[in-house]
Amino acid sequence: MVISFYYGGKLVGQATTTCPEGCRLSLGQPGLPGGKLCGPEGLELVRFPPADAIPSERQRQVTRKLFGHLERGVLLHSSRQGVLVKRLCQGRVFYSGNAAAGRAGPNKLERDEVVRVFDTSQFFRELQQFYNSQSRLPDSRVVLCFGEEFPDMTPLRSKLILVQIEQLYVRQLVEEAGKSCSAGSVMQAPEEPLPDQVFRMFPDICASHQRPFFRENQQITV
Q1: Burial class (CB in 10 A: 0-12, 13-18, 19+), 88
Q2: What does the alpha-carbon distance between residue 67 and residue 48 come to, in Å, rounded to a whole number?
Q3: What InterPro entries is this protein classified in (predicted)?
Q4: How confident is the model at residue 30 (pLDDT cuts 50, 70, 90)?
């Protein structure tokens, strides 16, 4: 997964992890026993970047106050089936993703509940439609919003903390589809059961999903 952090609409940090057990987004290693989203223990710890880089003093203060409710963070797990999230922190967390398509109003994550926020099979169906009829490219992103309702009519730049999550190979499939569209070429997706068909359509990209893209305990650069 590629995880990007935005404070006040500005990118302040990014991390890439392929840890099979998933990862925990939090301020630091919690003292409480870690909940498991699935599989054995061994979650990669991905830290929120500090608020020091925020130029507005008031925004820094409010963001740090919000940090006080995010100690335990959230758990993320990525697989061929999609992206799962489990909220552990006290602070409210809202999300957008293709698994929530068609829902009206903000989408709230309930505490200690595992929620699929991205459905890979749905993405593959939409990608097949794109290749068959040149419909719009499917969205590969999941966005988590901490402490504020989302999605709503408020501009993204006004949100204190947004975290964007993408499955790396899914993002690469979107980029490849965009290149084929720009080149004027259309690839017909085979009429086979999904999602395995896409792994045969782009074997190199999907195989790269298995290669390591991070170092152990890699720090987020700000």
Answers
A1: buried
A2: 9
A3: Interferon_reg_factor-3, SMAD-like_dom_sf, SMAD_FHA_dom_sf
A4: low
